Every structure is written in structure tokens, then in C-alpha cells.
Amino acid sequence: MAKKKLQRFAQLASFNNVFQPHFSESFNKDHHLKGTWHKVVFYNDNPITLELGCGKGEYTTGLARHFTDRNFIGVDIKGARMWRGAKDATDNHLGNVAFLRTNIESISSFFSENEVDEIWLTFPDPQAEQRRTKKRLSSSVFLNKYRKILKDNGFVHLKTDSTLLHEYTFKVIKHNQLEIIECTADLYSGGETSAVLSIRTHYENIFLNEGKKITYLKFRLPKNKEITEPEND
Ligand SMILES: C[S@@+](CC[C@H](N)C(=O)[O-])C[C@H]1O[C@@H](n2cnc3c(N)ncnc32)[C@H](O)[C@@H]1O
Questions:
Q1: How many domains in the chain?
Q2: What is the mean pLDDT of residues 138-142?
Q3: pLDDT level of residue 233 (50, 70, 90 thresholds)
Q4: Which of 106, 125, 157, 178 could make a disulfide contact with 173, Cβ separation 3.0–4.6 Å?
Q5: Up-side HSE of residue 180: CA atoms within 13 Å toward CB?
Q6: How confident is the model at residue 84 (pLDDT cuts 50, 70, 90)?
Q7: pTM for the complete prediction?
Q8: How far is the CA of 200 from the centre of ligand 1 (A)?
């Protein structure tokens, strides 16, 4: 492994704001952090927002700077990427930021019922092949996992360059009669974009440089409604 990457892994392990549980700590069981994030990690009762598939964590740290009275947790499986956001938060004393290195599939092992207020999905892999539909982070499989940890009618945000993923998610929303708060197929076409929606991630910058349009969806997820998958086209 490259020396720089090894150094980053070593530093990641030393950051107080990073949690890297071993697979065995959460496989088919609850992790000890579940239900304790307010008390043990943040030392406050402020609402918690997750950025799932956070990469370098630009939304996690960007939102934390905007909303100092809220807590933000970036979740990703890749430590070398997460290092960037964790270092930013450490160097700049962002006490309302944490990072969790785990597979999103096991998210309900780490958060208890109603522990999370909002979820951001920032440029997730579109999983374009039809047979991989259920791997999409906005599929019914994942939305049902999020329902378990989100407060009732909590917001889910999806920012993506993928028309396929945007349209697929719109279809899931409509099929399940979820409430859409905002939906745009070209975020930057109308001039002014809000400061929050203007936070740029690593992948967003790549896609913008390629001339791609950025789409955005914000919707509510009700707790007591099983989400089902729409029919294939
Ligand atoms: C295309 S990148 C986007 C990263 C970042 N949000 C951005 O916009 O720059 C997708 C990220 O999701 C992470 N990811 C994908 N599936 C995951 C899973 N099941 N569990 C944890 N992380 C996952 C990948 O490791 C990767 O960092």
C-alpha cells in the first residue's frame, strides 16, 4: 500500500471523531454506540444528520459549519477518503462532526429508533444495472432501513448527477406516495442556489467539470409505512 495511504490510516485511527468498528462488533447485533451518540459522542441533545456514502465528507463538515446547533455523522466504508473530512473537522475543532466507517447495509446496528433526524445521500453509485436496483441507496431496501432509525417524517435528501438514479428515486417516491419537498432536474440552472445546496463534494466537482447536470430531491419518510419497490420498466 502507498506510504501516504498508510500514514492516513494511522492518523485516522488517532482521531477522536472517527469510529471504525470491527465487522464482528456489529454483524447481526447492535453496536455499543447504538442509542448513545448524543450522550457519548456529542455531549448534547441536538438533532443528528447522517451523510451516507460521505466519501471525503464535504457535506458532513459543510453542513456542520452552517448549523452549529446540529450534529453530523459521515458514514462510508472507505477510510482513506473519510480521512479528509475527519482531518478538516479535527483541525477546525468542529465538535458537531463524527465519522463512522462501516457498511451502510448495517446502519440499523449503529442507530436506534428515532435517533436520526435527516439523511443526505450525496452522489451515490447509481448501480445502473437493473439486477442491482436493490443496491441503490434510495431503493425500498435501504429506505426501510432508514425508516427504522429516522424520526417520523424525517427528510431524505438526494443529490446526484445520475438521471437514472434521480428518475428511479422519483418513481419510488411516487409509487409509495411519499411527500416531495423539493425536486429539481438541474440544480444550478435557475441562478441563485442556496448555500446548503451549493456545498460541492469531490464527485460533484468531477461531474460539473464533465458538464453534467446536478439533480436534487428532498422528501419525507414516514415511519409507519413499509416502502415497496415499483415495477420494473
Ligand atoms: C461516488 S462516491 C461519492 C462520495 C461523496 N459523497 C462525494 O460526493 O464525493 C460513493 C461513496 O459511497 C461509498 N459507499 C458505497 N456503498 C457503500 C456502502 N454500502 N457502505 C458504505 N459506503 C458505501 C463509497 O465508498 C464511496 O465513497
A1: 1
A2: 97
A3: low
A4: 178
A5: 16
A6: very high
A7: 0.97
A8: 15
Please tell me the distance between residue 66's alpha carbon and the centre of ligand 1 in angstroms: 23
CA 229 / ligand 1 centre spacing (Å) = 22
Residue nearest to atom 10 of ligand 1 (CA): 124
Question: Does pLDDT of 82 surpass 90?
Answer: yes
Residue 124 lies in a domain: yes
Ligand 1 nearest-atom number relative to CA 122:
6
Q: What's 156's domain CATH number?
A: 3.40.50.150
Pairing type for strands 180-184 and 215-221 reads antiparallel
Joined together, the cell numbers standing for residue 106 give 448495517
| Spatial CB neighbours of 51, under 8 Å, sequence gap ≥ 6 | 57, 59, 60, 63, 72, 73, 74, 75, 119, 120, 122
Residue 147 cell numbers, joined: 425508516
**Considering Cα of 34, then 26, then 150, then 183, what sign does the dihedral take?**
positive
What's the domain range around 68? 3-18+30-221
Q: What is the average per-residue pLDDT within 182-197?
A: 93
Q: Which of 125, 161, 186, 233 is catalytic?
A: 125
Question: Nearest residue CA, atom 22 of ligand 1?
Answer: 76
Task: Say whether 125 is catalytic.
Answer: yes
